[in-house]
Amino acid sequence: MECFYTIDQFVDEPVMLLDRHLGNLDDLGQGIDGALFARELLYLDSLGKTRIQIWINSEGGKVIDAYSIISAMLKSKTKVDTYCIGIAASAAACVFISGRKRIMSDYAFLMFHNPFLETTDGKLTKADIDITNTFTKSL
Q: How far apart are the C-alpha atoms of 18 and 22, rounded to whole Å?
């Protein structure tokens, strides 16, 4: 399998980089594809690695992409440790705290906030509010 987020898939403790925003955002374009990241992590898990490291420097992004990554981390038989090497904000902070061991660099920054939806008119429908509340409780 071709790896997009892993530095060297052939070492015993591969490093995966979460070094952009999560998902496809209107103003930033495509960042980390959560489903592809999860697939790659589970592929590494199938190779019998001792440990997988995820190095995070991300402003966050889409919750759905974070869910894919977190689910793969939690289902992996291989230990998955997270490293904040800059910023782990928003959805990326949720990925960070899901690691078995969580290591932050001295200069690193961790930031949480409640999920939100952006709308073109600035108004949320009842369905939007329900979705946002569901994400908030889940995270």
A: 8
**Distance (Å, whole) CA 7 – CA 15:** 6
pLDDT at 16: 98
Q: Is 113 assigned a catalytic role? A: yes
Tell me, what's the pLDDT at 62? 92
Among the options 90, 98, 105, 138, which is catalytic?
90
Query: pTM to 2 decimals?
Result: 0.88
Identify the active-site residue in 46, 105, 113, 138.
113
Q: Active-site residue 90, yes or no?
A: yes
H, E, C per residue of the chain: CCCCCECCCCCCCCEEEECCCECEECCCEECECHHHHHHHHHHHHHCCCCEEEEEEEECCECHHHHHHHHHHHHHCCCEEEEEEEEEEECHHHHHHHCCCCEEECCCCEEECCCCCCCCCCCCCCHHHHHHHHHHHHHC
Using CA atoms, how far apart are residues 60 and 21, in angstroms rounded to an integer? Answer: 5
